[in-house]
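Hi R.,

Here's the chain you asked about this morning:
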Amino acid sequence: MGASCYVGVSAPAGPAIVRARYVHDGCPSSLIPQLRGIWATATRCDTNALIEAVLAHDWAYLRSDITPDTQSLPGQHPIPGVGMTVDATDPEPATVFPLHRAVDLGASWIYLINPTDSTITAHSGDGEPLGIHRLNDPAKREENPARRLHAAHLLSWHAAPGGHTVTRAHPRHHLAMGCRRTG
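And here is the predicted structure, written out as tokens:
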């Protein structure tokens, strides 16, 4: 059984709002290398093209070695170089949600692609950042030191050139905003 996840991008105007697609099988150990492969081959190292490709469909799985002849189950459709969709006809719109409400999705992971620096930030199912992965250098991975601190203290994570700064933040206020799909 796969670990469900969402892969997408934060909205430029409001980085706390996410536009993402469902992926049925998305454990970090397999999904991040596959996103790197798609980025390097199918989208020719164009991070915006990677985002467009991922946001085009909901996915059974993402894999850079998919061809038009890859066998699929009923209701799935192979997209060469990207993955296997779960919508054989017209795709549903992308899911849009505030990151602080990620737990409502019931997913194990959330991956946000940053087009500015070609990185992927992996978040746990509750929206907490766990680490940053570079698309162009799989050997480099930056851990979030906040994850190791006591859970009773809510921490915010601020990326700065050359490292991370961890500071205490105010407790999150959960608004009465749910998740929704938009076109």
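One quick note: Residues 59 and 85 are 4 Å apart (CA to CA).

Cheers,
M.
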